Amino acid sequence: MRKLYILKALIDLLWFFSVIVIVAMAIFLPFLFFSSDPIEIPIKIGTTKVEAMDLPTKLMLLGLVSAYCFFVYGLFLFRKVLVLFSRRQIFDRNVIFLLNKIGKFFLIASLVAVIVDFTANLYIKNTVEFGIEGGFFDSFLFTASLGLFFMVLSEVFAVGKNIKEENELTI
Amino acid sequence: MKKIKFLNVLMIVFLIFGTLGLVTNLVFLMFANDLKTSISYDETALGFATPYISTLLTMLLIKGIHNIQRALSYCLKYNYFNSKSGIHFQKAGIILIVFALLCMPFDFVNHNFDDKELLLINGITYVLVLVIGISLTAVADVIKKGETIEQENLLTI
User: Fold this and answer.
1) Residues of chain B by 3-state class (helix, strand, coil), percent to 5
2) Which residues from A are below 8 Å from B101, CB to CB?
3) Structure-model confidence comparison of residues A53 and B67, the more confident one
4) Fewer beta carbons within 10 angstroms: which end of chain A, N or C?
């Protein structure tokens, strides 16, 4: 159980920072989208620096923000899973459903982010780029793997639930 | 099973690219003087040791991913609940925890507080890796528990 409490504390910390970023974005983005003044704050979409704020760039930024929101929602669901674990509901229907949902949200977030990054390179830099970043963790492979891992976990818990039910039924 | 197979392939791709990157880095380090590189580590807190430490950290990360890949392949081979998968998930979790705990001070010391944005992003990333590491050890516990239940189930009539 100690591991669970540490994990919960860390997820709460991540969640806290993520919510701060979302609140900041909610305040900052309307100004950015509806203001006609040239932007003074340096903004990057992936590795591409944004210089002009036209409609396609705004749409790309919106895509990136939505990808981030999907990721944060995944974190929120993971917190819920940890709460269920702390109530000793491990091989539970809700846990299986939530883990699958987290996986889907992480996968969608990584797909949207990679599409936006690719489009930004194409539109702003006029280049086509494929690659794995040196940092590993901001790469598509990493986030997609994380999403898939949660979906696999959901399957593992589903199998565990079946075995547990069979075990409780047998004498 | 389709998802786990796909994840296993992704992990192998991850390992291939990671190993390629590591080998390139090592070659680059060995022949750094011959290549007359413009990268200077004098300004970093750890000096010339910086690239060697980061290479060691990358090795640690690759070892962690390798353990995850092995755990997944055992899941494919012997069904989800088996002790071998549990052991490899446990190892991977511990390695990733150590990796995150070592990377945090390394980045903190090395970036000299110049780029605060990078420092913050890296900090959050390492917390995420720490979370993944702890989650993996928790998953290992669940797999071990599942194996016990499965064995009990097989023994009862």
Assistant:
1) 80, 0, 20
2) none
3) B67
4) C
From A144's Cα to the closest Cα of chain B, the distance in A is: 9
Question: Residues with Cβ < 8 Å from A29, sequence gap 6 or more?
Answer: A61, A65
b/e map B64-102, b = 16+ CB within 10 Å: bbbbbbbbbbbbeeeebbbeebbbbbbbbbbbbbbbbee
Query: CA torsion B90→B93→B99→B103, rounded to 10°?
Result: -150
**What's the DSSP call for residue B47?**
G
What pLDDT score was predicted for residue B112?
A: 58
B6 neighbourhood in chain A, CB within 8 Å? 148
Tens-place pLDDT, residues A112-135: 988 888 888 888 777 766 655 545
Of the candidates B6, B134, B150, the beta carbon closest to that of A7 is on B134
A158 inside 8 A of chain B by CB: no
Confirm whether the ipTM is greater than 0.90: no
Digit-coded pLDDT (tens) for A10-45: 888 888 888 888 888 888 888 777 776 666 666 776
Between residues A92 and A141, the one the model is more confident about: A92
Give the C-alpha separation, A96 to A161, whole Å.
9
Q: Which among B2, B7, B63 is the top mutation candidate for probing chain A, defined by the most A β-carbons within 10 Å of its own β-carbon?
A: B7
> Average pLDDT of chain B?
82
C-beta atoms of A10 and B21 within 8 A: no
Instruction: Give A134's contacts in chain B (Cβ within 8 Å).
Output: 21
In this predicted structure, the answer to whether residue A136 has a pLDDT above a threshold of 60 is: no
Q: Do A141 and B18 touch (CB under 8 A)?
A: no
Q: Give the pLDDT of residue B33.
A: 64
**Is A151 touching B (CB cutoff 8 A)?**
yes
Question: What is the distance, to the nearest Å, from the Cα of residue B60 to the centroid of all Cα atoms in its chain?
Answer: 6
Q: Is pLDDT larger for residue A12 or for residue B113?
A: A12
Contact B129, B101 (CB under 8 A): no
